[in-house]
Amino acid sequence: MDLMTIILIAFVVFVTGVSKSGFAGALGVFAVPLLMLKLPATQAIALMLPILIIADIFSVKSYWMKWDSKLLYSLIPGAVMGILIAHAVVSYVSISHLKIVIAATCIIFSLKGLILGNSKWTLLSSKAGSLFMSSLSGFSSTLVHAGGPPLMMYLSAKGFSPKKFIATASVFFAAMNVFKLLGFSVLGILTLSEFTTALPFLPFALWGNQFGVFLQVRVNKVTFLRLINALLLLIGLYTFCSS
């Protein structure tokens, strides 16, 4: 592994740590494309999973017991269902069309939040909305590695405080990534090699986590939700352009 690849992986791990603990994983959609600057697509995708799990562990620890347990009981089964559906229909789904749908949803939701404010969306934050958005998160995470936006939209609609928002997202993504880990291992996509590659970069995940927490405690709820909406808009535009 050459020096530039090492620097790139270290940067991605650090940004992932910041993203997880400071912005509920909002920047995760950019991780794999960055790694693909120096690594083959399959290797970049496989390497990203242990990096995400390491960052999840630090993030869950940082926001221990700040999450909404009752909500997670309804979100996690939906994510698992979405992952299973994605594996079942992967050969029938147009990835480019799925990206366009996710991009359009992100753009519409974020513009609504930025222009009209963060009033709650009753339909989106309902039980039906919980099942749909968590399933969409698991589905899109498996097919296009963009599981963050659906959950971010759902939690934004709930109007959570920054700590509760990030804590709930951290546990949700940790559970989803562990489930994906099992699937990737069975399919042979993820091997011990990816874990041994990711392990030396563990300190960068910790430093990123600490910096993310540092940023999070310095913003209030209104500013945090506006940042989330701005990031969703950026993700939507990026996803649309890459579709």
TrEMBL record:
Transmembrane stretches in the record are 40-59, 71-90, 96-116, 128-146, 166-190, 197-217, 223-241
* Similarity-based family: Belongs to the 4-toluene sulfonate uptake permease (TSUP) (TC 2.A.102) family.
What is this protein's record name?
A: Probable membrane transporter protein
Tell me what topology the record assigns in the membrane: Multi-pass membrane protein
Tell me the keywords, alphabetical order. Answer: Cell membrane, Membrane, Transmembrane, Transmembrane helix, Transport
Q: Name one GO cellular component term.
A: plasma membrane
Its localization reads: Cell membrane
At the top level, the lineage of the source is Bacteria
Predominant cellular place of this UniProt entry's protein: membrane
